[in-house]
């Protein structure tokens, strides 16, 4: 069973159990997936990897919105966004620890022979496929910068 089918089945269960948080969040995610499928010239079915990319993007939106609401003093909305992010996180692969990300980056730096900020693109090209959906892109970028600046 694919990830989209899992989401659809979980939506049915959430509706049956009257779990409004889960059902609302899963509906939003399925809508984002459908929008991605029909975007462009021809409709297509997304692979599980592409669905994980959509889920990661939706989770990031929830994190950023929760931070913005918290800064604006809207704790109730911040908590709602955080809760929605937790529902989405159930469907994402286990996130890599910072130590795991640093190991991947160290291997990529060694493989590419990059040094200094100019090597950022070469390292990111090697790191991104290994961390996609498993780590926040901002965190990965920050750690790559640290590794390249520390290597000078």
Question: What do you see in this structure?
Answer:
The chain is mainly α. The protein has 2 domains: 3-89, Hypothetical Protein Yqey, Chain: A, domain1 (Orthogonal Bundle), CATH 1.10.1510; 98-150, Arc Repressor Mutant, subunit A. Helices cover 74% and strands 0% of the residues. It contains 7 helices and no strands. It has helices spanning 3-16, 20-38, 48-71, 75-89, 98-112, 120-131, 137-150. The longest helix has 24 residues, at 48-71.
What are the SSEs and their pairings?
Blueprint: H1 3-16, H2 20-38, H3 48-71, H4 75-89, H5 98-112, H6 120-131, H7 137-150
Helix pairs in contact: 1-2, 2-3, 2-4, 3-4, 5-6, 5-7, 6-7
Query: What general outline do the C-alpha atoms trace?
Result: globular
Helix count, DSSP H or I runs of 4 or more residues: 7
Q: Termini distance?
A: 48 Å
Briefly note the CATH topology name of the largest domain: Hypothetical Protein Yqey, Chain: A, domain1
Structural class: mainly alpha
Q: Quick summary of this structure?
A:
The chain has helices spanning 3-16, 20-38, 48-71, 75-89, 98-112, 120-131, 137-150. The chain is an all-alpha fold and 152 residues long.
């Amino acid at each position: 069973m694919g990830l989209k089918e899992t989401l659809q089945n979980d939506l049915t269960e959430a509706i049956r159990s009257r779990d409004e948080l889960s059902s609302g969040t899963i509906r939003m995610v399925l809508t984002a997936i459908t929008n991605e499928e029909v975007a462009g010239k021809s409709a297509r079915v997304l692979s599980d990897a592409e669905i994980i990319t959509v889920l990661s993007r939706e989770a990031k939106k929830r994190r950023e919105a929760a931070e913005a609401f918290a800064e604006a003093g809207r704790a109730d909305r911040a908590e709602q966004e955080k809760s929605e992010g937790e529902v989405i996180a159930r469907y994402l692969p286990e996130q890599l620890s910072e130590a795991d990300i640093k190991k991947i980056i160290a291997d990529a730096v060694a493989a590419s022979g990059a040094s200094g900020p100019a090597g950022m693109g070469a390292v990111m090209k090697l790191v991104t496929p290994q961390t996609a959906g498993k780590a926040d892109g901002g965190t990965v970028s920050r750690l790559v910068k640290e590794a390249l600046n520390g290597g000078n």
